[in-house]
Specification:
Distance between the termini: 13 Å
Shape: globular
Order of helices and strands: EHEHHHEHEHHEH
Number of strands: 5
Strand order of the largest sheet: 2-3-1-4-5
CATH architecture: 3-Layer(aba) Sandwich
Oligomer: single chain
Low-confidence stretches: none
CATH class: Alpha Beta
Helix content: 55-70%
Bound molecules: adenosine-5'-triphosphate, (3R,4S,5R)-3,4,5-trihydroxycyclohex-1-ENE-1-carboxylic acid, magnesium ion
Structural class: alpha/beta
Radius of gyration: 15 Å
CATH superfamily: P-loop containing nucleotide triphosphate hydrolases
Largest sheet: 5 strands, parallel
Number of helices: 8
Mean pLDDT: 93
Number of domains: 1
Strand content: 5-15%
Length: about 180
């Protein structure tokens, strides 16, 4: 299956940590019979180490440069489902790439989630450097600052509170199929 109107991912998932980009994206790709790709994974492959180590060794700005390149490559090469790192949309150049993709009929889904539902999902997991210390307070601050950006870059928003990842994936599949019909 390929996206109507040309090259590029069938869908791009954006949203904060714990919104389910990796989980829902993997399920959605399975439903659509396409490959799943995650820019967080791509960055780790290029850097040769986990994201937490990139933050410690090289700093967030070095991570963001790697991430921007990973998003550009994935948008150009990948024709399946693509999940972006939670903060990838902060980069103005990345916002420009997403706007171009959306202008050509691309689907950018904002996986939304409230603090009450996100907190238990991210828990005290040490793999998210921006949430270290007080994950709940950090997540809330990050989401407050980013919500307008997620809303701006997205072509659709799906609230995931209290929903099984499978149900979220099915809703996104239905909306993609509707657009392609
Ligand atoms: N709809 C959901 N309901 C309940 N739990 C969920 C849901 N979606 C994801 N989860 C759980 O929340 C945790 C985080 O999900 P996931 O890693 O997919 O988020 P993410 O958006 O990719 O985060 P990150 O930005 O850190 O990569 C996982 O343990 C996953 O099983
Ligand atoms: O929200 C963020 O800024 C991040 C989310 C993760 O997906 C990773 O990209 C990294 O931990 C930073
Ligand atoms: Mg993820």
């Amino acid at each position: 299956m390929s996206r109507a109107g040309g090259a590029g991912p069938l869908a791009v998932l954006v949203g904060p940590p714990g919104s389910g980009k990796t989980t829902v994206g993997t399920l959605l790709a399975g439903l659509l019979g396409v490959e799943f790709r995650d820019t967080d994974h791509d960055v780790e492959v290029v850097a040769g180490k986990p994201i937490a180590e990139i933050f410690v060794d090289d700093g967030e700005s070095a991570f963001r440069v790697l991430e921007h390149h990973a998003v550009g490559r994935a948008l150009a090469e990948h024709d399946g489902v693509l999940a972006l790192g939670g903060g990838a949309v902060l980069d103005p150049a990345t916002q420009g790439l997403l706007a171009g993709y959306a202008e050509h009929g691309g689907v950018v889904v904002f996986l939304d989630v409230s603090l009450a539902h996100a907190a238990p999902r991210v828990g005290l997991n040490q793999s998210r450097p921006l949430l270290l210390g007080n994950p709940r307070a950090r997540w809330a601050a990050l989401m407050e600052a980013r919500r307008p950006v997620y809303e701006r870059v997205a072509t659709a928003r799906v609230l995931t509170d209290g929903r099984e990842p499978e149900s979220v994936a099915q809703e996104i599949r239905a909306s993609i199929e509707q657009e392609q019909a």
